[in-house]
Amino acid sequence: MIRSALFLSACALAFAAAPATADEGMWTFDNFPTAKMKADYGWAPDQAWLNRVQNGAVRLTGGCSASFVSPQGLILTNHHCIASCLYDNSTAATDYLDRGFVAARRDLELKCPGQQAEVVTRISDVTNDVKASFGSFTGEALTKARDAKIAEIEKAGCTDTATTRCQVVTLFGGGQYKLYQYRKYSDVRLAWAPEDRAATFGGDPDNFNFPRYSLDASFLRAYENGQPVSTPNHLKWNPRPPKEGETTFVVGNPGSTSRLYTSSQLAFTREVALPVTVATTSELRGRLIRAMQESPDRQREGLDTLNGIENSLKVYIGQSKALNDPAFTGKLAAAEADLRAKGAGGADPWTTVDTAVAAYRPLYLAQRFTQPSSQLYSYARTLVFAAQERAKPNAERLPGYTDSALPLLEKRTLDARPVYPWLEELRLNWSLSKVREYLGADDPDTQLLLGKASPEGLATSLVNGTKLADPAVRKALWDGGMKAIRASDDPMIVYALRLADRQRELQRATETVYGAPLAIAGSQLADARFAAYGDSAYPDATFSLRISYGKVAGWMERGKQVPFQTTLGGTFDRATGSEPFDAPSAFLANKAKIDPRATYDFVTTNDIIGGNSGSPVIDRAGTVIGAAFDGNIHSLGGTYGYDGTLNRTVVVSTDAVQEALEKIYPAPALVKELAAK
Amino acid sequence: MIRSALFLSACALAFAAAPATADEGMWTFDNFPTAKMKADYGWAPDQAWLNRVQNGAVRLTGGCSASFVSPQGLILTNHHCIASCLYDNSTAATDYLDRGFVAARRDLELKCPGQQAEVVTRISDVTNDVKASFGSFTGEALTKARDAKIAEIEKAGCTDTATTRCQVVTLFGGGQYKLYQYRKYSDVRLAWAPEDRAATFGGDPDNFNFPRYSLDASFLRAYENGQPVSTPNHLKWNPRPPKEGETTFVVGNPGSTSRLYTSSQLAFTREVALPVTVATTSELRGRLIRAMQESPDRQREGLDTLNGIENSLKVYIGQSKALNDPAFTGKLAAAEADLRAKGAGGADPWTTVDTAVAAYRPLYLAQRFTQPSSQLYSYARTLVFAAQERAKPNAERLPGYTDSALPLLEKRTLDARPVYPWLEELRLNWSLSKVREYLGADDPDTQLLLGKASPEGLATSLVNGTKLADPAVRKALWDGGMKAIRASDDPMIVYALRLADRQRELQRATETVYGAPLAIAGSQLADARFAAYGDSAYPDATFSLRISYGKVAGWMERGKQVPFQTTLGGTFDRATGSEPFDAPSAFLANKAKIDPRATYDFVTTNDIIGGNSGSPVIDRAGTVIGAAFDGNIHSLGGTYGYDGTLNRTVVVSTDAVQEALEKIYPAPALVKELAAK
């Protein structure tokens, strides 16, 4: 799975890219490298082709990508992108995650809590406006002025907040600011999903590996006013096998890359952030694995969380391996040396970044560990911060709480979702114990978070005492604002309020020592790159719409050629009978009907990253031939750099999905809908 | 706790040291730096003093140090060194670990399974003999010839295997080989231990930290023929507070350091070994923490294992931090550059090591993960290997199975110890799942270990099916040799036999590409250091007897002076009422009697490492004023280098132990015995 892994969000200000190598690049639609692609492939799409594809591309706010594939709002994405929807709709009696879901009729499609689908309708350059707001400010004043300008632009850009959303996207680490306008669909429902084992065959061991036998696909549908929306600009569904070597495009929303972090940012990530992340996440994984063995209910209730944790952990470990590989980091250092040699017009952004990173280091552990981990705590924190921020004018609020951001935040906070107390307690207990471990028992922040309580005791009392699992309670607190928050005796609200001042203080300190210097240095570095390499560069990923070109191709692994595709029949050969290599039950039941030679999954050279999950894989004709759902193991270093000889995108073919729709998890209505002209 | 953390044993061949800075050094008794200490301290012990101290120093084969402190075989060590003895003797009805143990009479002292006490009686130089055995061999032939010579020397050195033990110790990474002869006592019993909370107050959060409030002390007694042994050469018990600045000696068995690893060995450790170790150990910790919450029985049964895991993990994380600190590694690189500049008499051992490390890298994961983790599996593996090796002549056996090594191995394998199936299953399941994760589902080694089974399924069937928890079954297999092993249908024996060939193959490959080149390079590096710096160097730690000198002193932490001691009364101030900061029940019960100003724990500049746990802390007069039980957080980098401004040994004072013996966990007979002239 290639879930968006944005764990380093405090440091995720990205840098403008150096010239891209073959097939490298996550390009914005307003700067497609037509000449470069023509040189490499002898052909490139024209503007009409690009416009058509852009109009069919969907962003899912849960952290995935997708595409419209019928005129009635049908959306193709990955199974792992909608697993939480299955999970939220499941009970012990009806475990949709385990057995899959096919809506017998449209009106039986399942609402997906917190999910929203968005289509880019316009991109406009607001760089000058935003940069002008910096004036001669420094420190927190600078980031405040910038954020106020962004809030103003976003608010002015989308007056109809019911159907549109505006976001200013920071590109090239502050070299450019672009306003993205979206048509949004906030009622998203599930139409079809295979059984879990079909999507997750091979489980964590096979995740980020290939050859692969995974039906990581599903269909959603966008609704408005209780009706499927009309989507005439959909992409064409093309259920055919890929051809080795054919050109492919991946269109989606890569979440976050750090390809041109300066050396001090990479060093901080390698030396501090990743080791802490891997150690603490591994322990959480262990606690959850064991807890899930305690009962079938816990097995079901914890699965979605565990899948997310294991996926992220594999990413972190892959990133750590990349940054601990001197050959890999040597290339990054050479790229930096080349740019430094060309200079930044008298400025020295590298030293600015070095200083900022050094100043951020002592803040890191405190900032990281003063944010307890639990769904219920997150609700409380959001309710507290939203109440505090909404009391201020739009331009003075923290970025996540401006008028343009509030509708989705409100939806996410108030949508009904199941909450499992045992799981909440487990996460909260774990995260509080890490506070004490990493900050020390005598640290003032540990005292603030724990007082005289133990992590176990505090987690139990907060989870048992809070009523925030009830959406009506959350709604009353959201609607009631600061008055309701202050009057609340809900222990989780009281706790979130107790932590809020310190969290703000740390956030301000981070903006001052890191965010503000980086806003300036990022802009200088971007200008240096534009001067050195022209506009033949792509910005680091920012979970905004991008297009990548490449081709269907295997790769050489320790002297052996890895084939470019697998077949449905291969599933039966790989199955061992033991989880997670047990063949999906519907595969076994329908074995005689399934075409064993049908292409199952395939790999391409497209350059992707977490957040691209569910992206349509598109051929020259502009038709959809698959959904990207993973990268191979080498792609885990893709956060920092792309290597075309090794990095691969893993795709589930439309050929396999069509076979599944017809024979394995039959959905005749969808088959008909997808085939309609 | 400073348990011996020998996890990198495959690479733990250590290198000769550069000149030691003030207070740095784990010196052998045959090369005490008298002149250097006199220069630093104006005084140094004479040979009679050194001999006296050596005769009272005890090694505990469980991985700790200790000292005789009465003429009747009474041994002072740490509580955490005997926790497993309490644990092995506990049941749900009598939880000695929780409540502590005071033997009402000598004949009620508790036998400690697997434990053996050893006193060095003679050290002789066998360097020429061992080096001559290399001949012109290379690769595996070289290490075989060396190991055969060592087996021969050890066998010849100790003909009375009932009361003596011989070990050839490799010093300076192969620069010297010394024969250590020990008087051994294989019947060791527990006389006194405080309640667990007194020893572990502050738990994992306070471990490796100071100020500290820990009664990490206990008393064992050596027996022979059912009677306490006579130990006229014991050290004198001196229950007095330490004086700030006074000279202290720590005498014990530091387990393993890597202070003069070459840069490529350090890089491998930082880039590969430590990240894998921290991630996998963290997950095991999480699984165990959660499992222990499932019932009070599991809480008790898992505690000793969890303490060991958390202690090791803190060491690994501290080592990782040290090796990810450019200021720290810069000093190591400077030391290497200095030696390289002086040269190695035409040889180039550094390149030899680089090549050996590069050749070992691809073997590492396979070697690491083909060793499943479980007590029952370890029994099976030992029984299989011992049977196979004992069938060969002494000189042809693997090092751990020579005649000199067999008595302790047999004792450890056959001593009765409780085995908890749930804990066995947990560890085995975890370790098998890591095989698949790190080697990949399709790897031949994964296939060998798992076949078509899942980690969960295989762990359950092996643990449920084996009878090896029964010492009589183990004894029958030990005594029956290969015939009994081959005839056994015990699934764990069958499994261990199935893995043995591959384990041997990997061990041979490691010897060939790493062990043999390192034997040569280590010798060359040691010679280069002797040539450059004379004999003012100490060898890396090898769990053999050493002496360190230093003084009682606090240190500066972020601009603040950390005091050199704590008092018993401070315990009550620090207690929160929540685990692990709940005051020990006997402290609360006896608060009125306890002298609040009595020194509890204190810190010294002595240079120690895991394995030194339980070491007597000795004053100029040669009397015991404490037992070393920990290092401060800075000492975790001590594996690679010592910094006298920061590294500290943490000691429980005899003053506090005496107070405990008299008032908190009363043991009047011991008080009398310790006071006897």
- Cα end-to-end separation of chain A: 32 Å
Helix-residue proportion of chain A = 40-55%
Name the pair of protein chains with the most residues at their interface, and give those residue counts: A-B, 48 and 48 residues
Please state the overall shape of chain A, judged from the principal axes of the Cα atoms. Answer: globular
**Percent of residues of chain A in beta strands?**
15-25%
List the helices and strands and how they pair.
The structure is a homodimer of 677-residue chains.
Chain A: H1 34-41, H2 47-56, E1 57-60, E2 64-68, E3 74-77, H3 79-88, H4 96-99, E4 101-102, E5 110-111, E6 117-125, H5 127-133, H6 139-157, E7 164-171, E8 176-185, E9 187-193, H7 196-199, H8 203-206, E10 218-224, E11 227-228, E12 236-237, E13 247-252, H9 263-292, H10 296-323, H11 326-342, H12 349-369, H13 375-390, H14 406-414, H15 421-439, H16 444-450, H17 455-465, H18 471-487, H19 491-533, E14 546-551, E15 555-557, E16 560-562, E17 565-567, H20 570-574, H21 585-589, E18 599-604, E19 616-618, E20 623-631, E21 649-653, H22 654-664, H23 668-675
Parallel strand pairs in A: 12-20
Antiparallel strand pairs in A: 1-2, 1-6, 2-3, 3-10, 4-9, 5-9, 6-8, 7-8, 9-10, 10-11, 13-14, 13-19, 15-16, 17-18, 18-21, 19-20, 20-21
Helix pairs in contact in A: 5-6, 6-19, 9-10, 9-12, 9-15, 12-19, 13-18, 13-19, 15-16, 15-17
